[in-house]
Amino acid sequence: LNWAGGYPGLLGDGDTGLTFGGAAGYAVTDVPNGFDVNAVTFAHAAGTVTLTGGAFDLAGTAPVVTVDGAGSAVVGGLNGVPAVVAGQNLFSALTLNAAGGLTVSGPLGGNTTNGAGFFVGFRGTGGGTGTLALGGGGTTGFLTLLNRTTTITAGPLNLTSDAVEASPPVQPTSQPGRFAVEVGGSLTQSAALTVAAGAVVNTSGTVAVAPVAGAAAGVTATVLVRGAGAELNAGGTGLLSTGGRLFVGYAGAGALTVDQGGVVTAAVVQVARIRDAAGDVIVDGPGSRLSVPYN
Of the candidates 62, 53, 52, 147, which has an alpha carbon nearest to the alpha carbon of residue 96? Predict the structure, then answer.
């Protein structure tokens, strides 16, 4: 379905695909809440396509929002409700393949669990240079970020996964939902997350920066918590392998910078968790703080 110039009067389902093309940007302001869609693709050449009104329900098998063009996209909200597959973590993909960026101005929501011990969340992917911007807060199970650049501009964004670290703690590839937040995971592409001034990220479990081993030389994962009111809180109360841990360089090369009044809190912080991993932590400037109450 190619949709432009207004809501077409359809309810959608888990097989529906929407494509937004054209040479320039435009706005659709009457997206209904509860519009089930399996794939939303932005392929316009320039400008910004803005979809507001309600939130899309990303449904069906392997639901995805994709930016394939040089133009950027803004969506009002996304609910992850992928088709149930028992015994695994499930995700909706946010894929940036080109120069265009994707902004989610409304909340992330939808299902958070898939039975006991498994979670539902979102996964940033793609080799494009555009930025994934999350500006509406919300609650979801986990956030796995393999794409180049992600910025969280508002909140609170709550990640509810409290998955336990595997034992032994070595994983060769990224596994969505293994941690509440993963930054990095590609063996060939660096990843960066910025928590901007005023944005708050709360997790029930672990935050892992550079979660996989074996990446090519120069591939890194970085987290920047910058500005007054910027917070990253690795929650939970676990002191061993459950919630409240922040790994900077879990298995690869990772870095954390907290500056200009940003605050990071975790029950435990570990730098270079796995053998041959590397990690750097910088806390700089008035009001900036890394709080580790149990270390």
Answer: 147
